[in-house]
Predict the structure.
Amino acid sequence: MLRFIGMRLAQLAVVVLAVTLLFYWMLNLLPGNPCVAAFGGAATQEQIAECERDRNLDEPVIVQWAKWGGDVLTGDFGKSYLTGRSFGEAINHALPRTLLLLAYSQILALGAAIPLGLWTGYRQNSVGDKVASGGAFALLSTPVFVLGLLLILVFAVRLDWFDLSGYQPISEGLVAHFKVMFLPAATLAAGLFPVYLRLLRTDVIGTLQEDFVGTARAKGLPVRHVLFRHVLRPSSFTLLTIFGIQAAQAVNGAIVVEFLFDLDGVGSLLVSWVAAREFLLVQTLVALIAAVFVTVTTLVDLLYSVLDPRIRRK
């Protein structure tokens, strides 16, 4: 197991390095000069030259990338020539908001999909199963920005149950934090929930045909006990695989959700700094996203051995 973890960590490092190098090279193919964009048309040649030296823009791409990586590893994220703001400060401001949004959305999606997936799989082709499946398809076909606007209109504007005043940290109170974060988390979860529900339902239907489930039923065990103790674990492999993929891809939906609800997270930061050609910050954000993606997939691989001891690696 330790050898497997070490190999996965090494793969994580290689993937992050490869992704950041490729992305750095692609950014440098974009037309225009970031230093000219930072200073505007009134910039002098001396200012532009100093900016290029500070950002290593006068070096080959591979050298720029290596120096950027070395600075990041030492905690130096650089600063914006446009605003003078530290990139580290910007990331510390935005990252917790996005991570909380992603975590809350996954909790909501899984919290709804697991019990409903077990029930619809057990009650296959019932009226409730058909209603749940139809609702899942409706959610899956609704764009995230449309659903977000509908939730805002109904629950924030008409009913005034939730707050649209921007992000509130937990330190300001759990109620205030909940009133701000629930709607964006629910909006993002609505795109994840149908996928989890349909996959779990399909696997539950297959698992219910297994002999060990028939034995558990023959013993007279309650349905809830059979579903949660005997059916859920062997039905979770596909769900776990998709969870790893969806958890990373949810960053795409988070960009839209953050704009809708004025959360000012990593998605908003990424879009605004791409427009401003602040490539150092963009590169750092891409590295963080790549690291999160590979870390989640690594954790998924480790969880496989927890769900099924037969595939444990020694």
